[in-house]
Every structure is written in structure tokens, then in C-alpha cells.
Amino acid sequence: MRSGLPGGLDRRVAFGLAVPAGLLGVLVAWALGDIPAAATVRLCADLAGASVLGLAALPRLNDRLDIPWRMLAVLAGLWCCLEFAVVVFAAGDVVGSGVTALSPADFGTYLVRISGGQIGLAILAGTAVVAGYSTLAFRRPGGHTADLVLVFAAVTVTLRPITGHMSQQVFGSVLAGVHALAAAMWLGLLLALGLVVRGRRDWAETLPRYSAVAVPMVAAVAVTGVINGSVRLGGLTPFFTTGYGLIMVAKSVLLIVLLALGWWWRRSWVAAAAAHRMSAEASLRRAVLEVAVMAAVFGLAASLAVAG
To answer: Which N-terminal stretch is annotated as signal sequence (predicted)?
Structure first.
């Protein structure tokens, strides 16, 4: 299970760099605005959710790739635990006592009577179903499909965004849901490629297909992000005079970097990989780099989510 990276670094360790890269994004957001500590937990939950979504969708790019059920089960279980932590932080914020002073009674009230808690329960149920099904598929191979995981993961990823502040605007829920799903799929699929794809042949077959579907996903993220940000801030000036706006600007700058990187690698990396002129190790290194930049964007996005 070695990646062939310099020093024999395991690919799972390499993609583990997504977490510190995302935390760097949170740190930048903290420097620009007043960001709660819950942003770090939200970031980790979002990264886990994107990973599960990408692994479940990967067979649609290349049906020759085996579904990594054990990896799916572990990541889905981690996702469920992290979403529970997100709910706890949210409950402490709503109740006003903070996480350390949150009582079981107040937490129960939040889950049952507050809409945010009810959404949190639905998210926990979705992640639990994904983790349970993936565990069953791993323990009892044969006859299982990743489509069920894909559906539940996609719905779960969009539940919180479609019920957030944008839901009060016309088509706001649709825009927020599309933004969250496209971003998670964009990151998740590339991360899944790096974790699952091994040889030059598989990279040659799968990477161009990912590149083709990444284009509309990037467009969806960019367009919905601009609309959501403009509606949320209500003008151009707040982008440069408020902490929320400055974080939006930082996120946009990194997104532009990703667009430029994607354009360049579509002409070089994707073309060379498709022609079998690039080694699997070289493709993996590029995937690790791009995932790290994406994770930093996710860190900024998570900060905006908890701040908004």
C-alpha cells in the first residue's frame, strides 16, 4: 500500500496533509475575523464528508476500481463522530453556556426543539447509515453497491447548507446546496483518486474523466459562491470592511489559484497521464498538492459557515 512518494511515504499519510492545510485556512480566517473554535471541528467534518462522497462516486469514473469498503467504513464512522462534535458546539453556542458548561438537559432540548438540533440529528442519522452499510459491505463482501452510500452522503452533505441563512432568500437553499455538493465532490473525487488509483493505466483512464466532471463542479462552486457572498454581505464595500468579507476575499483568491492550477494541469498533467507519459507517482504528487490547496479553501469555508 505504498504510494511511491519520496521516502516511501504512505499515500494515506500524504493525503493526511489535507487536515493541517485546512487548519491553515482556519488560522488565516481567524486572523481576518472573529472565528469560533468550532470552525476546526466543522472543517474536519467537511473533509471527512467529502472523502466519503468521493470514494462512493469513484466507481462512476472507472468501474474497474474496487470499492474500498474498509476505508469508507472508517471515514464514515469518523464523519459521524465529527458531526456529533459539530452539533455539541452548535448547542453550546445556541444555549449560550458554551461547550464546557452544556448540560445534558440543554443538549436534549436543543436536539428536540431547535431546528438546528433537528437538522443535526438528521445528519447524524445519515452518517450512521453510511458507516453501518459500509461496515456490512466490508465484513460481508459481494452484492453491495456504492450508490446507496453516494445518495446518503450527498443528501447529508447538503442538509445543513440548505437550511442555513441562505434558505431565507429566493432560491437560496438551492444555491447553498449546489455550492456545498459541488465543492465536496470536487475535493472528494480527487482525494479518492489519490487514495485508490495505483498504476499508470488507471490514472490514464480515470484522471481525464475526473477532469471533465471537475469543470462544471468548479463553475458551480464559483458562481454560487459569488451569489451567496453578495447576498450575505449586501454589497461590494463589506467585502473589504468586515471580517466575513475579508475571509470571502481570501477564499476567492485561493479559488482563483486553484482555477489557474487546474487550467495548467489540464494542459500538462491530464494530457500526459492520458497518454501514459506520466508515472503514477508523479500524478499522485500533483493530486496531493491540489488537495492541500483545496483543503485550505475548505478551512476558510468552514470558518464562514460557523461565523455566519
So the answer is: none
